[in-house]
Amino acid sequence: MAPTFDLIGLVVTDMAASLSFYRRLGLDIPPSADTEPHVEVTLPGGLRLAWDTTETIRSFDPSWSPASGGPRVSLAFRCDGPEEVDRLYAELVEAGYEGHLPPWDAFWGQRYAVVHDPDGNGVDLFAALPTT
Fold first, then answer.
1. Low-confidence residues in the chain, pLDDT < 50
2. SUPFAM superfamilies from the entry (predicted)?
C-alpha cells in the first residue's frame, strides 16, 4: 500500500493569532482551539490542516528551529471570482496582516494575490479570470 497524503502542518508562535487569520479565510475553527497546543481541521475533500505551537514541536524535537531565509511553504485559497480576491486581500491588509503581492492578473489566467499569515507563511488568494 502506498502512503496517502493526509495533512499539512504549520508551526506557529501564537496559536490564537494564527487561527484568527485562518478563520478570516473561512476555516471553521472553534474559539476554544485558541489555547490548545495542537489544532486540526478537516478541509473539504478530507485533507487536514494542523497547527502546532513551537513549544509542542520542541517537546519531541528539542533541537528544532524555524526555517531561515523566508517561508518554506505557502497555502493557496481559491476564491469565487476576481472581485473576491481583491476584497479579501484588502480586508486582510486592513486587519493588519502583511500584504506581500497585491492583486494582479497573472499570465496563467488567474487573479492572484499573496498575503502573509502571522508566522510569515505565504497565503495565495486566486480566482479564474473571465474568458473573453
1. none
2. Glyoxalase/Bleomycin resistance protein/Dihydroxybiphenyl dioxygenase (SSF54593)
